[in-house]
């Protein structure tokens, strides 16, 4: 897609977007119209707010991009996936610029009632499984980006796992964007009581230097005693804008392991939240941020304890080289009734350049009086003594820095329970490390 868009995100472009989707159910069209009306009334986020004070979005120009097109014809699928190797998926979804290219699911899983595929398709074919959950977790009015996404989302991914169904094989989702393209996909994952699943989701551009726009959302709903491992790897091109709202609700005795790796996009702003809504709910979030060039990646995380006796563990590690910058702002929020809360939050940074920067702002907001909550952050540079030690043993400087960076992220890698994902992330980071200045 050219960066000069023929259709735009204004009222005329919105009506054209809806006209091309005239077969959508009325309830979805009404939701889109309401969200577009709210988006029109909103201003763009500005640096006057605490959330955006360290992230400048003024260079972003929405008019350069067109709303997603209705799928038409066979799509060429670029071979840019890294996480698909080494796994035997029970189902696969591939999209190009929000358009569905591949959709498969093992017959045995389909026979058990598992739904996995295009969210747009299931809005029509299984509305009773989609409508009760869509936009019950992510707030479509959170900001202008969220409202525009709710109005213009296209394609999307949907996973529904019925009560008591355990999916042994991982499910794979691959999202690819062309140079100058757009992806507005919405991911909705629903696990009923006692269900289990593993989802591996990676996003890539056709070229590491590609531009484009991703304006997306992820919603995860876990019913009591369900268990989900979700891997979300973002490697959009380094001229791509990436704006996303991602949220999970975890009910009684359910467990969520959510692994995030963000190494792409030129400007990225992500809001990630986990709400623990039932006693005994447990969440572990593992985050890897690696930036280079002039990348700017900002993550705002929240672990919200709404019920007693819940556990949350957020660990983010970030490394910055060249003139890049990361911003991590975390919050542990504990409601008054959420007694016996156990919350942990940490962000460690390794600055690999005299010109790169890391901002780390942990926070606590606690209303209960019987809790254990800890948070912290560290920022450091590579220890020259460690480099000297490696040089004396025959390693080159670049090899020494790679070992140090790999060691820095090892704590995260050790928490990832999928071996192929662990190895792929370690290799991807090692490839990007250059000699320390």
What does this structure look like?
- The structure is a single chain.
- Mean pLDDT is 94; it is low at 1-5.
- The longest helix is centred in the last third of the chain and has 19 residues, at 397-415.
- The strands form 2 sheets. A 10-stranded mixed β-sheet has the order 2-1-5-8-10-12-14-16-18-20. Strands 3, 4, 6, 7, 9, 11, 13, 15, 17 and 19 form a 10-stranded mixed β-sheet that branches.
- It has one domain (11-382).
- The protein starts with 10 loop residues before the first helix and ends in a 5-residue tail after the last helix.
- By secondary structure, it is of the alpha/beta class.
- Helices cover 21% and strands 39% of the residues.
- The chain contains 9 helices and 20 strands.
Look at the structure and give the mean pLDDT: 94
What is the helix/strand order? HHEEHEHHHEEEEEEEEEEEEEEEEEHHH
E-strand count: 20
Low-confidence stretches: 1-5
Radius of gyration: 21 Å
Distance between the termini: 38 Å
Instruction: Report the total helices.
Output: 9
Structural category is alpha/beta
What is the 3D shape? globular
Give the amount of beta strand, in percent: 35-45%
The structural domain count equals 1
Strand order, main sheet: write it out.
Answer: 2-1-5-8-10-12-14-16-18-20
Describe this structure in a few short sentences.
The protein is α/β, with parallel strands linked by helices and 437 residues long.
């Amino acid at each position: 897609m050219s960066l000069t868009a023929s259709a735009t995100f204004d009222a005329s472009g919105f009506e054209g977007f809806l006209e091309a989707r005239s077969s959508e159910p009325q309830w979805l069209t009404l939701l889109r119209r309401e969200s577009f009306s709210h988006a029109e009334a909103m201003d763009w986020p500005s640096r006057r707010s605490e959330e955006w004070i360290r992230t400048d979005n003024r260079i972003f120009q929405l008019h350069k991009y067109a709303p997603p097109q209705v799928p038409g014809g066979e799509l060429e699928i670029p071979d840019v996936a890294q996480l698909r190797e080494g796994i035997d998926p029970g189902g696969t979804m591939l999209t190009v610029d929000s358009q569905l290219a591949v959709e498969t699911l093992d017959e045995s899983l389909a026979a058990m009632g598992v739904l996995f595929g295009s969210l747009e398709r299931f809005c029509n074919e299984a509305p009773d499984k989609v409508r009760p959950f869509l936009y019950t977790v992510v707030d479509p009015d959170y900001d202008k980006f969220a409202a525009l996404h709710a109005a213009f989302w296209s394609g999307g991914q949907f996973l529904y796992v019925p009560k008591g169904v355990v999916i042994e094989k991982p499910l794979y989702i691959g999202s690819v964007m062309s140079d100058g393209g757009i992806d507005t996909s919405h991911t909705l994952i629903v696990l009923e009581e006692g269900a289990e699943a593993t989802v591996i989701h990676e996003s890539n551009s056709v070229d590491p230097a590609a531009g484009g726009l991703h304006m997306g959302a992820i919603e995860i709903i876990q019913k009591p005693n369900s268990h989900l491992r979700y891997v979300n790897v973002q490697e959009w091109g380094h001229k791509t804008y990436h704006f996303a709202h991602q949220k999970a609700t975890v009910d009684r005795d359910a467990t969520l392991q959510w692994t995030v790796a963000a190494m792409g996009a030129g400007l990225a702003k992500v809001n990630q939240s986990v709400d623990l809504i039932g006693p005994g709910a447990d969440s572990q979030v593992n985050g890897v941020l690696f930036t280079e060039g002039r990348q700017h990646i900002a993550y705002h995380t929240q672990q919200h304890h709404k019920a007693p006796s819940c556990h949350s563990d957020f660990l983010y590690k970030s490394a910055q080289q060249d003139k890049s910058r990361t911003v991590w702002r975390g919050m542990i929020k504990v409601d008054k009734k959420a007694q016996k809360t156990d919350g942990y939050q940490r962000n460690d940074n390794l600055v690999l350049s005299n010109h790169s920067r890391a901002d780390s702002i942990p926070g606590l907001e606690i209303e209960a009086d019987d809790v254990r909550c800890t948070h912290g952050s560290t920022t450091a540079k590579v220890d020259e003594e460690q480099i000297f030690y490696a040089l004396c043993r025959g390693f080159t400087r670049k090899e020494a820095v790679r070992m140090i960076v790999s060691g820095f992220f090892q704590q995260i890698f050790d928490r990832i329970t999928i071996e192929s994902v662990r190895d792929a992330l370690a290799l991807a980071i090692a490839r990007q490390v250059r000699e320390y200045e």
